[in-house]
Amino acid sequence: MKYIILIVFIIPLFVKSQNVKKIELINADMIDYDEARYGKNVRRMVGNVTLKHENAILTCDSAFYNTEQNDVQMYGEVNINFSDTIHLHGKYISYSGNQKTAKVRKDVTLIHKRATLYCDSLNYDRNTSVAYYFNYGKIVSNESVLVSKWGYYFAQLRDFVAVRDVILTNPKYKMYSDSLRYNIQSGISTFYGPSKIISDTNLIYCENGWYDTKKDISRFSKNAYLWSKKKLLKGDSLFYDRGKQYGIATKNVSLIDSTNQLTISGNYGRYYENPDKAFMTDSALFVAVQDSVDTMYLHADTLFYLTTIDSLKYLKAYYHVKMFKNDLQGSCDSLVYSVRDSVMEMFKVPILWSEQHQLTAKQIKIFFRNDSIHRIYLNEIAFIISHEDSTLFNQIKGKTMTGYFKNNKLYKVDVKGNGQTIYYPKDNNEIIGANKAESSDLTIFIENNEVKKIVFFKQPNATLFPLNQINANEFKLDYFKWYENIRPLNALDIFKK
After folding, report:
1. Cβ neighbours around 78 below 10 Å, total
2. What single-letter DSSP state applies at residue 406?
3. Rounded distance between C-alpha atoms, residue 286 and residue 494, angstroms
4. How many angstroms separate the CA atoms of 60 and 91, rounded?
5. Which residues of 361-385 are buried (b: 16+ CB within 10 A; e: fewer)?
């Protein structure tokens, strides 16, 4: 078992004393030498019994002292005081002068400087300054209380090693562990098995790590996580500063928002409890479950997730942003996503793909409703392109544009300012030409990914060109650019540069 291995390594080797000294009798109100009753070389002492062995003073109500074996059995209110400031108390102590060991039973107390150990049974070895307690013990040091089924106290190191059913209680939190090492002087707790730290604001779990109770800082590993405000921060390694209320996680990091069904992952992340915010980098990924069949995946160099004072939740993504969901894909330099309002804003070369449509502008705003695309607003040099065939492109361009969706399909586009279109009308599914039109404002109706109707609100300038009179490579509106080569086709593609 883990804790047994630990103890083997940290207990100093037992070394018998080379110069055995006899236990000295200092005082007793009555001494009885009845060999028939007590045995050979045994003295019975009663009343204000005081003994001395080296630098230790032993006191009790009554005792049996074997002068040949150099040991004493003490009863009543038994105390042993060592010059190294260790004080032992119990109802019964068996003390060996040759081995320099003490077995203390019933109402046991061990006091060393500012730490006190309470238990029912304890063995103490003066050679190593190590105490072993069992049948449950409680250690009180300053504001901390440590309880365990059994354990060791290393007086020279001022270390407690507590094993089984371990609970460390502090005014700010409680620690629960399978095995724990606690240093009184440094205030550092070290965990060697499944452990929990529970406070009013969060819960921390790990299977290895340490906690500095004086500085309120800690580092955890092996299945470590921090649960706070319905958010779960996980990582191979987790650092937490309770005073500043933030955690740092590295390698295989995940921040899970269970309320909003969101997950942010990466290999380096920070989470701040107050104010409620986080950022993630190094393979950063945002995952939002939007309905039973679709999920949004978003990657960027850095992701920020924060909650404002009015409880609005925002995701901010910076540099090399790519997004994938079954009905919508995107690319841009940066974006902001309001989780509660379900609004996403894309900046600096924003590109969206919806089925066969490519949407571009200087700024794009997406409005979701019931986890589906409701409408898309394109601001400045708004452009929608779709493939008609391998060489021909339907095109819509304007100053601003609003695209409306039904069942995640684009069905209407409102163009405001400098409206221009190129589309290819059909007769019996055969392209009959190329229609190029201009109007300041217009509305385009789309059905089955084809232009079915255009409504011009001002006098249009329109021309229908026969196919044999156009050059497909040149028959394009200004600012035309086809980005199909960077379109993510699945969730893994969003990591491609």
Report:
1. 29
2. E
3. 11
4. 9
5. bebbbbbbeebbbebbbbbebbbbb
Residue where the block lists tokens 């919508």 = 328
Quick check: 269 and 253 in contact, CB under 8 A? yes
Structure token pair of residue 298: 């978003």
Helix (H, G, I), strand (E, B) or coil at 361: coil
Please give the pLDDT value at position 430. 85
Q: Structure tokens of 314?
A: 């925002």
The whole-angstrom separation of Cα 482 and Cα 246 is 44
Among candidate residues 262, 472, 446, the one with its CA nearest the CA of residue 354? 446
Q: Can the peptide bond before residue 460 be classed as cis, meaning omega within 30 degrees of 0?
A: no
Which pLDDT score is estimated for 292? 63
CB 419 within 8 A of CB 452: no
* Rounded CA separation 91/74 (Å): 8
3-state DSSP call for residue 244? coil
Q: What is the dihedral of CA 112, 115, 119, 124, to 10 degrees?
A: -30
Weakly modelled stretches of the chain, pLDDT under 50: 1-17
Tell me the pTM. 0.78
Residue 312, pLDDT score: 75
Residues 88/104, Cβ–Cβ less than 8 Å: yes
Here the tokens at position 246 are 């933030």
For residue 135, how many other CB atoms are within 10 A of its CB? Answer: 12
Query: Would you put residue 458 in left (φ > 0), alpha (ψ -120 to 50) or beta?
Result: beta
Identify whether the C-beta of residue 101 lies closer than 8 Å to the C-beta of residue 145. Answer: no
Selection from 47, 44, 4 nearest residue 29 by Cα: 47
pLDDT digits (tens, 9 = 90+) for 114-138: 889 999 999 999 999 999 999 999 9
Domain ranges of the chain: 307-489+493-497
The DSSP code for 469 is G
Confidence at residue 228, expressed as pLDDT on a 0 to 100 scale? 85
Question: Which string of DSSP letters, residue by residue, matches 246-310?
Answer: EEEEEEEEEEEETTTTEEEEEEEEEEETTTTEEEEESS-EEEEE-SSS-EEEEE-SEEEEEE-TT
Spatial distance between the Cα atoms of 448 and 107, rounded to a whole number of angstroms? 85
The owner of tokens 């040759």 is 98
| CA distance between the termini of the chain | 48
What fold is seen in the domain 307-489+493-497? lipopolysaccharide transport protein A fold (2.60.450)
- The C-alpha atoms of residue 431 and residue 70 are separated, in whole angstroms, by 114
Convert 111-147 into a string of H (helix), E (strand) and C (coil).
Answer: EECCEEEEEEEEEEECCCCEEEEEEEEEEEECCEEEE
Burial of 143 (0-12, 13-18, 19+ CB in 10 A): exposed
